[in-house]
Every structure is written in structure tokens, then in C-alpha cells.
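tool_call: predict_structure(chain=1)
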Amino acid sequence: MRKTKSAFIGVVILFAVWVMLTDLSTQEMLFGGGTALFIVFLFRKKLAVLEDVKLNPRALISMVIYLFVFLWELLKSNFDVAMRVISPSLPINPGIVKVKTTLKSPLGRAALANSITLTPGTLTVEMKGEYFYIHWIDVTSDNIEGATRSIVSNFEKYLEIIFG
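tool_result:
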């Protein structure tokens, strides 16, 4: 059952990428679906990483909410970094902070690390167990709890539902 779920998720992801890159003609959809099935068949042993993804209504709603939360954080951090570039008088206090995650799933932790890295002003430097080391452009809290609250908490609550 778990392999079937992983294969299904793999086909859906590949097909969604295909749809975003092509037009919506019947021929393109059939070819894209066939290609997605073929790729998933070839790499079926590597799809075990997708077993952590939940496919229940709560997780699907959390995926949609997470997308908007991520885009909002991306917009805010882009604006913040742009203002620091335009106005050099704005304070900058770079440093590496240690944050803690409650995520147990390796895929969930990878999604969190990538979400942090994709938002300008933060970069995941290292992951060690439940701790991440983050380069932060403007360190506002040097303790673990404060840095976790500022950097991780907005993403983590949704990723916990999605990946468990």
C-alpha cells in the first residue's frame, strides 16, 4: 500500500510539472501522463522518500495554506532584503543561529530547510538531528527558542500536518 501511495504521489507531482510547462492539448496530456508513469516505474525504488507525505483532507488543506504562508514569507523577506540593499543605513546584524525543529520526517525536515533557504536573508547551513544552523542576515534573537519562533514556527506547523 505504501509503495502505491508513493507511486501515486510521484505521478501526480511529475504530471503537475508537465502541465505547468506545456499547453493543455489532449496529445500533450496523454504524453505527459505516460511519461510520468514511465519515470515512476523506472525509479519506483527511490520513491520511498514520498511515504511520509500524508494524503488526507487535513494534509491537503495544509498544503494549500502552506503555499500561501511560504509565498507571504518570501514576499516579506524579499522586501526586507531589498530595503537593506537600497538603504545601507538600515542595521544589519548577520550571524549563525541554532534553531530546533519538532519534525520527525526526513522529507519534512528537508522541506523546512529548503523553505528557510529559499526565503532571502536566511540560509540553512547545516542540519544535525533536530537542530538546524541558519545564517540569518539580521539576528534578532540569539537564543534557540527566539530564533526558532522567528524563523521556523510559521513553516513547521503546516509541515507537521503534511509530513507527520
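agent: The mean pLDDT is 88. Proceeding to next step.
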